Amino acid sequence: MNCRLVLSLLLALSVIVSECKYGFVLMKGNEVTIKVTDYFADIPDVHVARATYSNEINSTGWAFLELHTSVYCHDEKQAYAAGYLEGYLTRELVWMHWQNMLKGYCYNKTDICGMIEDFVTKNEMYMNKMLEADPVNPYWYQVKLYYIQIQGLADGYNAATHDPYEFLTSRDIVWINMLGDLDELALSLSSANYSDDQLFDEHCTGLVKLLPDWSNLYTSHVTWNSYQSMLRIQKMYVMNLHLAPGNAQIIPGYKMSMSSYPAFVQVQE
Q: Which residues belong to the signal peptide in this entry (predicted)?
């Protein structure tokens, strides 16, 4: 991804050059080495993951992350390194997003949060049970890699964090990725009236238009949300993961482009 030049008219015409950072991860066994540089040429040919990161939120409203993993590395290493590198590079935005969206979520409703936490724990136990029963099942294998990526993201974030107060666990990252489901879980798990204290009330607009002569179908989507959720990252993942263990086929969606949020490893619009 190339760094962008943004023209800004204040008192006079000036050019704002966004700051691009390049990072890469090397792994020897379980030992992770991460490097961040100003030059793409510094990235070695042999690596587990590499990324380009540019925070342009103050000029364009967006940050940009492009992340690649090596086809020559084991799937689990690819997933972990991808998460680790993203967490390390986007640490500042991850912490801001946590503060904006989740830091005070459980105030005065610890009972509801306890029920959600219990639900997540049981759900993860079920997933582990399914993986143990059928470790080569493509669906559950991808679920496993998803959670490995989340663990890597938490570890990379914490590696770049110096204040222990700002440390986040992998479960915290899971909660961030559950933001779109928290209200529904709270409503379904709690007998109390929760409707007046929802994190998301209404969210986004979709339009589907069929032409009168049926010649074409137009669709449109507009993202709108609360002011607190305006930290956005345009992401591209190129992850050469395999369909299942021992399967030579690369997953169909190995290249993904999405409008996302800090610490999200999927799209939510």
A: 1-20
Instruction: For 35-75, write each residue's pLDDT tens digit.
Output: 999 999 999 999 999 999 999 999 999 999 999 999 999 99
227, 233, 230: which is closest to 89 by C-alpha? 233
Encoded tokens for 95: 């912490």
The per-residue pLDDT of the chain, averaged, comes to: 88
DSSP-assigned letters across all residues of the chain:
-PPPEEEEESSSEEEEEP-EEEEEEEEETTEEEEEEES-GGGS-SS-SEEEEEEEEHHHHSEEEEEEEE-TTS-HHHHHHHHHHHHHHHTHHHHHHHHHHHTTTTTTT-HHHHHHHHHHHHHHHHHHHHHHHH-TT-HHHHHHHHHHHHHHHHHHHHHHT---GGG---HHHHHHHHTTTTHHHHHHHH-SS--GGG-S-SS--EEEEEE-TTSS-EEEEEE----GGG---EEEEEE---BSSTT--PBPTT-EEEEEE-TT-SS---
pLDDT (average), residues 98-114: 89
Task: Pull the structure tokens for residue 63.
Answer: 């940050």
Mean pLDDT of 125-143: 97
